[in-house]
C-alpha cells in the first residue's frame, strides 16, 4: 500500500481531520485503488497517529461509500458503482443546467474573469500532465459558478452524492492525457456566460457533463477490476 501524504497538517487542526483528508485524497486520486484492502495497523504506521483517529476517519469514509467494512475482511476501498455514479450525474446535470442559466444573468465581470483564470490554470495542468491538480481546478470552476449564483448549499448537495462519479472522472483524466476537449468546453461555458447566452451555456454544460458517459464503457473495459 502506498499513500501520498501531501495534505497540510495544521497543528491547530484536529488529527482526525488530517487523517480523513489524507485518506480521502488518496482514495479519490486512486493511489488507494478500488478493491484494495487497508488495515488499521498499516495506516497507524504510515500516518504516525493513534488508532482512534484512523477509526473515526474510516467510519466517515464508510458513510461516504468510499470504504466498505466487514467483520471478516476488515476495510476495503469500495469498488466504483456505476449505478450510483449515474444517479449522481443525473442530479448534477439537472441542477447545474439550471444554475448555469442563472449565471448568465448574475455573474459580474470580475467573476467571469475568475472563471477565465481557472481555465488558464487548467491549461498549465495539461502541459504538465498533472491530472490531480486538473481535477481540483475543474471542481473549483464548477463550484465558482454555483457560489457566484448563491447556490452554495446546492453545490454541497451535489458533492454529497459525487464520490463514485468523481472517481470515474479522475480515472478518465489519468487514463487519457488528451484533455483538450475538456478545456474547450470550459472555455465555451465561460464565453456563453460572458455573452449572456443561457441556451448556449446550458448546451455546453450538458455536453461537458456527458463526456465521461461517452467514455464510461471504455474505462470499464480498461479497468474492469475497479468496478462493481
UniProtKB/TrEMBL annotation:
Keyword check for Disulfide bond: no
Pfam entry (one): GntR
Keyword line: DNA-binding, Transcription, Transcription regulation
InterPro entries, per database record: GntR_C, TF_FadR/GntR_C, Tscrpt_reg_HTH_GntR, WH-like_DNA-bd_sf, WH_DNA-bd_sf
SMART domains: FCD (SM00895), HTH_GNTR (SM00345)
Domain HTH gntR-type: 13-80
Protein name: GntR family transcriptional regulator
Organism: Paenibacillus artemisiicola
